[in-house]
Amino acid sequence: MEIKVFENDSDLARCAADYFEETITAKPDAVLGLATGASPVETYKELIRRCKAGRISFKKVTTFNLDEYCDLPRDDKNSYYTFMRENLFDKIDIPAENVHIEDGNAADPDAECRAYDEKIKAAGRIDLQLLGIGTNGHIGFNEPAEAFTEGTFRIRLSESTVKANSRYFTDSAMPEYAVTMGIGSIMRAKRILLIATGAAKAEAIRNTVKGPISPACPASVLRLHPDAVLLLDAEAAALL
Ligand code: PGA
């Protein structure tokens, strides 16, 4: 696992965007795995700038998002569908049909999860997978567990995730469940980039890098990946 530590968020975002630019330049029809949350926002801004400047195009790119809340209308201001439109998709040249996000409101969640895995499979391997990390070491919404997960599945969010994300749900209750790509799906990506900034992530990063490889800290599995890169700021790297 490669670890890069940056002095500020813009240097980190530029480096993350460089990985995307390299991937898309080498393979214009690349398959990208995308993340939501605060961590990727600066990187998305940099990708939007590069797309508007004509350096990169997403016209042939296919994307799969990691996760989506259950029981939240797709157009709710806190859905990850809305997040992705506002922070990336509405501002780049990606065709709407190339974008995939789980349906958190499917009548049959298991069938939706299987269908999502089939779509990923049909698109080929994910070339570049972007990740944030939870304060509890989760990636996607793969919460600390007894065993590493495989494909897409529905999960009850942990107390620490509810605590971390409920700040966004100012006028509605935060959903208790989400649908997430599994660890197996994430690990099949050719390259994985994990972004972590701020002191709140320091312990999770220490457990990821120095703790046992264990589903108790889901991100620790990235040490088994041949091309995983951690992009950190000094605060997130403070306990390494
Ligand atoms: P954050 O969330 O980027 O908003 O900190 C990351 C995560 O929970 O995976």
Descriptors for this entry?
single chain; 240 residues; alpha/beta; 7-stranded parallel sheet; 3-stranded antiparallel sheet; binds 2-phosphoglycolic acid
Would you mind describing this structure in some detail?
With 240 residues, this protein is α/β, with parallel strands linked by helices. It is built from 7 helices and 10 strands. The strands form 2 sheets. A 7-stranded parallel sheet has the order 1-10-9-6-2-3-5, with helices on both faces. The protein has a 3-stranded antiparallel sheet with strand order 4-8-7, with helices on one face. α2 links the parallel β2 and β3. α1 crosses α2. The longest helix is centred in the N-terminal third of the chain and has 18 residues. The chain is globular, with a radius of gyration of 17 Å. The two termini are 13 Å apart. The model has no long low-confidence stretch (mean pLDDT 97). The site of 2-phosphoglycolic acid has 7 residues, from loops.
